Amino acid sequence: xxxxxxxxxxxxxxxxxxxxxxxxxxxxxxxxxxxxxxxxxxxxxxxxxxxxxxxxxxxxxxxxxxxxxxxxxxxxxxxxxxxxxxxxxxxxxxxxxxxxxxxxxxxxxxxxxxxxxxxxxxxxxxxxxxxxxxxxxxxxxxxxxxxxxxxxxxxxxxxxxxxxxxxxxxxxxxxxxxxxxxxxxxxxxxxxxxxxxxxxxxxxxxxxxxxxxxxxxxxxxxxxxxxxxxxxxxxxxxxxxxxxxxxxxxxxxxxxxxxxxxxxxxxxxxxxxxxxxxxxxxxx
Length: 284
Prior knowledge:
With 284 residues, this protein is mainly beta. Helices cover 8% and strands 31% of the residues.
């Protein structure tokens, strides 16, 4: 068992999400940075479906109820066990009663804590993930929460450390033309794919609101609601684009001018307010 002493700004339970439920209005959700969550899972030798903790902006403090094997990945940050420095992106043994404390990442936003066996909470629609938009799944962690450890351990891990660097300071996200690319003027498309964009303060797991030049649309009318996917870049009437992440709504009524390549979504998940990014158009 793990007991939460301090959750930091936001810590949730996440796994690979709940795909296949869009028809009933449920998005996939799951870990925002799937690459980092998957790495943590492999470092402790868990099965791929095991749940992890997604720690936003650090600050998590948990106490081990018994000896546990854990790993911390994602946005690099200081890791301590009972006040002593501990390795990042490596399997780490927590003795019974010890305190695991995470600092704050100097770059990036989301870090992941995997425990051998997985975080065991009641699944909803086949997933243990917290969907912050719909409220499905367990609520965000609070001080005093006790977390059971599951039985999703696989073979014993054989990796001592995973050499991973911090997220890029100014990432370039590859985008494909979206289904409503033709709703943007040619100048607006060039601006979207060549200019710099700053992540706005009101960004979260649902999406990133981007500050920068306003994008002109050819059409001013609105659409009937259409399906959305992670990475959709939607352009509302005010011309300020929104990049949707894992807790995105299932449908939206504004034109989707571009879609971020799936492989680049982990980079988007590590962006925090004030960070700068660019888009680069690629062919399908």
